[in-house]
């Protein structure tokens, strides 16, 4: 089952290679950087809505039917985006169809891997998020080739065909696994009311941590170009971020099975802040690419450490619901952060202010995590830690 989840997220992770399309879409739609960034932002918002409400369908649809629908809708969204003649059509295809299917697939794979491997749930989630990051690392090169051959239309059609090709092997592996994702009912967990403040803090810490990463990921090629990389090398910026994102996911999952909540969830935003300062203070291509790599690492570790913490605190079954609520912070960050970075770029002509803002947001995540209870380890049980 873990292999099926990894193949699924490998294809869906291409959504985070969107910055490759920025300049092409500006010319195609005669639009500003901030308007084009909204395609990515709206896609992240759609992903969030799907993760939030995913538990309503996970119990009702057989996993084979679910993954088939996910891949079919994702492919349909890419096909619609390929024919887009305006931003609205791109929003419908890429942001709504592809984004929504992406969210259902990501949420399904993340929680399915945890329930299938309860003893190593952190590592299993890390593998899933690592392949999601690997998808973002692999995608820019074929995207760039297809952009050179036939523009955005060819790139989107290529992604749609890829999604259809992997449908059969993923469905086969799910059938072979003979497993079902379980979601518990709300009324069976009345102790959740005593944990509301913990959920609020997790929401704030998670949202500010990922906002830092998403702001940079959404403008990776632009930041690389502004940081001194030439036109041929900027395409490698999202690849570098994604590769280190993958390593971060594996490290975050490993630590999530062993270390205390507060230590793990403070360390990674601190790493992001240091990386952003590196990019801002050392205006050089090498420093820029190193900073982007470290930000990718911190983001990858964060997005697996938080769901692993939720699964340990609330259980791998009920945690599906709780994480859906906390994940809304990711959606808000995804909607606002890349778009606002585009506005700041247009206002000031570079990314200096956007980088400073991202650093401040990362610092806010570190401070929020500082107030997580020190005596609760990530392997603790919520019933033993009600306060």
Describe this structure in words.
With 387 residues, the chain is an all-alpha fold. The chain is 77% helix and 0% strand. The longest helix has 30 residues. The C terminus is likely disordered.
Please describe the topology of this protein.
Blueprint lengths: L1 H11 L9 H8 L3 H21 L1 H4 L4 H20 L4 H30 L4 H18 L1 H26 L1 H11 L18 H22 L2 H7 L9 H21 L4 H21 L3 H30 L4 H8 L1 H21 L3 H19 L17
Mean pLDDT: 83
Strand-pairing-aware structural class? mainly alpha
| Terminal CA distance | 36 Å
Strand percentage: under 5%
Summarize the structure.
The chain has 387 residues and is mainly α.
Keywords:
387 residues, mainly alpha, Growth Hormone, Chain: A, globular, disordered C terminus
């Amino acid at each position: 089952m873990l292999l099926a989840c990894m193949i699924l997220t490998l294809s869906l992770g291409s959504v985070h290679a969107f910055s490759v399309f920025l300049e092409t879409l500006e010319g195609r739609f005669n639009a500003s950087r901030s308007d084009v960034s909204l395609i990515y932002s709206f896609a992240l918002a759609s992903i969030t809505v799907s993760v939030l409400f995913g538990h309503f369908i996970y119990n009702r649809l057989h996993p084979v039917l679910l993954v088939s629908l996910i891949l079919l809708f994702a492919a349909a969204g890419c096909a619609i985006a390929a024919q887009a003649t305006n931003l609205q059509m791109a929003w419908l295809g890429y942001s709504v169809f592809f984004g929504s299917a992406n969210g259902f697939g990501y949420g399904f794979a993340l929680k399915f891997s945890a329930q299938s491997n309860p003893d190593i749930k952190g590592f299993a989630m890390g593998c899933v998020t690592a392949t999601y990051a690997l998808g973002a690392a692999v995608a820019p090169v074929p995207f760039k080739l297809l952009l050179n051959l036939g523009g955005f239309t060819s790139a989107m059609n290529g992604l749609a065909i890829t999604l259809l090709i992997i449908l059969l092997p993923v469905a086969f592996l799910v059938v072979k696994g003979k497993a079902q994702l379980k979601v518990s009912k709300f009324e069976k967990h009345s102790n959740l009311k005593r944990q509301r403040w913990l959920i609020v803090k997790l929401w704030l810490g998670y949202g500010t941590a990922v906002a830092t990463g998403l702001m940079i990921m959404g403008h990776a090629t632009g930041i690389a170009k502004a940081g001194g990389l030439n036109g041929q090398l900027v395409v490698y910026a999202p690849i570098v971020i994604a590769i280190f994102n993958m390593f971060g996911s594996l490290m975050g999952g490993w630590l999530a099975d062993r270390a205390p909540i507060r230590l793990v969830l403070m360390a990674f935003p601190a790493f992001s802040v240091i990386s952003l300062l590196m990019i801002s203070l050392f205006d050089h291509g090498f420093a820029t690419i190193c900073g982007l790599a470290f930000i990718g690492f911190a983001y990858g570790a964060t997005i697996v450490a938080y769901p692993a913490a939720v699964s340990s605190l609330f259980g791998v079954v009920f945690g599906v619901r709780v994480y859906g609520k906390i994940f809304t912070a990711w959606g808000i960050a995804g909607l606002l952060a890349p778009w606002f970075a585009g506005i700041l770029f247009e206002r000031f002509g570079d990314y200096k202010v956007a980088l400073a803002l991202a650093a401040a947001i990362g610092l806010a995540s570190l401070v929020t995590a500082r107030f997580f209870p020190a005596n609760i380890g990530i392997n603790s049980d919520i019933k033993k830690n009600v306060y």
